[in-house]
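User: I'm new to structure prediction. If I give you an amino acid sequence, what do you actually give back? Let's try with this one:
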Amino acid sequence: TRWETDVARPGTRRWAKQRLLGLLLRRAGACVAIGSSNQHFYRSFGVAVERIVMAPFSVDTDRFASEGAAGRAERAGMLQAIGLDPVLPTLCFAGKLQPHKRPLDVLAALDRMTSPANLIVIGEGPLRAEVAKTAAGLSTVRVLGFLNQSAIGRWFGACDVIVLPSEVEAWGLVVNEAMAAGAVPVVSSAVGCGPDLVSSSGGVVYPVGDIAALADALDNLVADPRTLAMASATTRTVSEEHSLAATARGYEAAARVACRKAG
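Assistant: Good question. You get back a string of structure tokens that encode the predicted 3D arrangement of the chain. For your 263 residues, that looks like this:
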């Protein structure tokens, strides 16, 4: 749960939640937070800071790092196989093609960019037809549809930037996956992982729904290949801090805190 979305609830619902859930949380031996906004949520319910333990929301970073490295090595062939110029920087949207994910924002931003770039759209959903119609005739855009987990890591590695423009997104695990593979994140301010993963990685958090700001962020990233390469290296380093091992260490620490309180 994010603090930002919780405080936006109707007053009566939040009042009831404060009374009921707050009682439970304040009595818990330890509360495990997946990120800074989740930590703030616990604090807003009166949980003492010493009983909140961070255990980052994670993916198998080793696997995605390995698959991303393969994708970077095969980048030219992969992009040429779908008719894209491998010399151009490549953006990626991966997720369900539904309204709250705002995939059309990426296409609109691409149209406003001053730097040429490819765009790969991965996913299925109710907006698939509209996305395909908008992309029709654009030589630098490909809509790949659904890809399973055995293939998606290589595509993240072949891309330079992962874009998540959602208007509602509790975390955004696709950002974890793509960052581990080496793609630099650009996410909206509504994406929960922004403060923890993106802001410290060389990526960009922009105001949700602001197409001009998204286009500017993408332009600034892809205009200089050296800047993009440095951001990619930083991105991979930051992603390692959100590994399964880091999550496990967080749960172990939470257990120690809870045992001390019980003892």
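You can read the tokens as a compact description of the fold. Here is one thing that stands out. The mean pLDDT is 93.
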